Amino acid sequence: RAKNRGRDQVCRYTADLAAIASHRLALESDLRAALADAQFELHYQPKIGSADGRVMGFEALLRWNRPGHGRVSPLEFIPLAEELGLLVPIGAWVITQACRQMAQWRDQGLGRIRVAVNLSPSQLKSADLIDGVRASMTSHGIEPNELEMEVTESMMMDDPEQAIATLNRLRGEGVRLSIDDFGTGYSSMAYLKRLPVDTLKLDRNFITGIDKDTRDADLCAGMIALAHKLGLSVIAEGVETEAQRSALVERACDVFQGYLFSPPMAAADVAAFLKGKVVA
Ligand code: C2E
Ligand code: MG
Ligand code: MG
Ligand code: MG
């Protein structure tokens, strides 16, 4: 009997593996078609000034409307897309789409609204990045400091010198830069002073417990002080509660982003969101 049970378990395990493999294969072939089939969309989450509630800009977050599956989270497809080498073309689409959207809001009379896009490691290494960014900005009349890019510390790891050179060139094109998920990567403290970035984004991990856990609160205070010393501004991501917000105000955090203010929204909802608000 024990032997039979063992065989059953092996069978079930094999069936599970087969299911996982076919699930992944389907995801992969759908993902390869998604860009050409215009299934991607950007949603926008506001960044709010801590001093006066002004809207400092939005972060563009990629959404995939996968046929038969609804809206798929980037956490589910970004790693696979990167592995398949698809994030270079998809990322280029993100940059173009963000610039197109900024131009549309401007032409609609909403003013010049800053947008930040997330860069992938492969994009940062791609030889076409700078030309692509310049072309997108020029063709949509985007001015210096209107477009921002978020990079992570881990993207510097492979080849820090090359990464720094690319970031400097982006800065030269008038792109603002921020370090995303700061404090979670292998720390680039040694590089921090050399990175041409404007902003540190404190990872949501530190924000979650900031009103309860004194160690999170002390870490946030320390990172904010460090950033300010280096002339950088600090944005807290994943701010969900009033208690977190006031703990961050107390520690001189400059900008907030999170569900407390708004979840990411479709581009069409941005005009209504901005009604009665001041855009920085
Ligand atoms: P991220 O850049 O750190 O973006 C912040 C994530 O936190 C977003 O998840 C956002 O929806 C979510 N978030 C915002 N406020 C809150 C909050 O108050 N509470 C909680 N629990 N979550 C909050 P999303 O949109 O699922 O994106 C996940 C990650 O996928 C992003 O993390 C980014 O690393 C990646 N990603 C998204 N769009 C792109 C893209 O266009 N290109 C690349 N390379 N990566 C992208
Ligand atoms: Mg980001
Ligand atoms: Mg982040
Ligand atoms: Mg994060």
Automatic annotation (TrEMBL):
Taxonomic superkingdom: Bacteria
Signal peptide segment: none
Domain called EAL: residue spans: 24-278
Name this polypeptide is given: EAL domain-containing protein
Full protein stretch here: 413 to 692 of 692
